[in-house]
Write a structure and sequence with these properties.
The strands form three sheets. This protein has a five-stranded antiparallel beta sheet. The longest helix has 24 residues. The protein is α+β, with helices and mostly antiparallel strands.
Length: about 375
């Protein structure tokens, strides 16, 4: 997808100032190495609170509290009118052998959906299996590669210029809802110079190169196109760092107005105390005012503090952010346990995790 610079894009310009190819310390580290200090803290917190799965009690209405194995639709189903109004239009289809064009058209029409739209697994992770679908032939091709019997979420394509991950938590002592972190996400992209092709621009940008080298991702851009000087070419539907997306710490955008708006949405969901809202927005001014937010999806207790992946954030600072998140998550789980919520068993947690990763390996590539 190609977009020329406009007012909305200009409003977001600071999210990718400096060298966009820069990588944070956490991005450069092997995932297993990042996990070592986090697992150590988790074990310590588990021993202290007498439960290794206590965070699963944080959001009692969601499978495992959202630690692992929950469906995206679980967060949407219990929403009240305020939260539903802020959420992108969507519907679900089960990929059965009898599912055809006529039934798909009827389901989409009933939900108020039209192409382009986003298709993604109900049980997903890190953008795996997420595609922009521009027509029925592409929709049928996507379903032909999707595991039979599993649920696909069809969702309105949101063309708003900005995307953010807003981390919400409800204080277990005071009951006050707050935003504990905010990440601004820039999609993998290159900027034209009027001379080089998209393929050449991608090859020259270490971050953009991840789009073409990422496993289980299919590039959908025109590699032979020559963008005009200053023209921005978006390289992927998803903004994950695995395909070259960039996360920046957007703490400066957290205002009382935004906190109030997000808290109202969270309280319009059943027993939701901790998680991340992934939203699209038109401008940073609108984000700060808490207006015009459209929710793409919600993540629960297993949400990552993605603002820690800002290239300007050092290793110690990034780990400290994640440590604070884990400690607060255990505290919220402990508060829910005192109210009678039982954490999930380790065996069930392992089963859910195994099923989720088995399915991820079977999904069509993202684009």
């Amino acid at each position: 997808m190609t977009t020329a610079p406009g007012n909305a894009q200009d409003a977001l310009e600071f999210t990718h100032t400096g060298a966009i190819e820069g990588r944070s310390t956490l991005e450069r580290m092997p995932k297993w190495l990042i996990c070592v200090p986090l697992v150590v803290q988790w074990l310590w917190l588990g021993l202290r609170h007498r439960s290794m799965t206590l965070p699963s009690a944080a959001n009692p209405a969601i499978t495992s509290g959202g630690l692992v194995g929950e469906g995206k639709l679980e967060y949407f189903r219990g929403m009240g009118p305020l939260a539903r109004a802020a959420t992108a239009t969507h519907c679900a289809v089960v990929n059965d052998p009898g599912l055809g064009e006529a039934s798909l058209q009827a389901t989409m029409q009933q939900a108020g959906l039209s192409f382009p739209l986003i298709a993604k697994p109900d049980l997903g992770l890190c953008g795996h299996g997420v595609q922009r679908i521009d027509g029925m032939p592409a929709m049928l091709d996507y379903l032909s590669k999707f595991p039979h019997g599993e649920t696909v979420v069809l969702q309105e394509y949101l063309a708003q210029a900005g995307e953010a991950g807003i981390f919400y938590a409800r204080d277990p002592a005071s009951g006050d809802g707050t935003i504990i972190g905010l990440a601004l996400r820039t999609f993998p992209q290159v900027t034209g110079d009027g001379v080089r092709t998209v393929a050449e621009l991608v090859a020259a940008d270490p971050r953009a190169r991840r789009t073409v080298s990422s496993a289980r991702h299919a590039c959908a851009f025109d590699a032979s196109a020559v963008p005009a000087p200053g023209e921005t070419v978006r390289l992927a539907t998803i903004g994950s760092t695995r395909v070259g997306g960039l996360y920046r710490d957007g703490a400066a955008c957290i205002t009382p107005q935004l906190v109030a708006a997000v808290d109202a949405i969270a309280r319009d969901m059943p027993q939701f105390h901790f998680g991340r809202f992934d939203v699209r927005f038109d401008s940073l001014a609108g984000l700060r005012a808490g207006t015009g937010l459209r929710i793409m999806e919600v993540n629960g207790a297993g949400s990552e503090s993605i603002e820690a992946w800002d290239p300007g954030t050092g290793l110690v600072s990034g780990l400290r952010t994640i440590f604070r998140k884990q400690a607060l998550l255990f505290a919220i789980g402990d508060a829910r346990r005192r109210e009678g919520v039982r954490p999930i068993s380790l065996l069930e947690l392992a089963r859910l995790n195994r099923r989720q990763y088995r399915l991820i390996a079977l999904y069509p590539p993202s684009n």
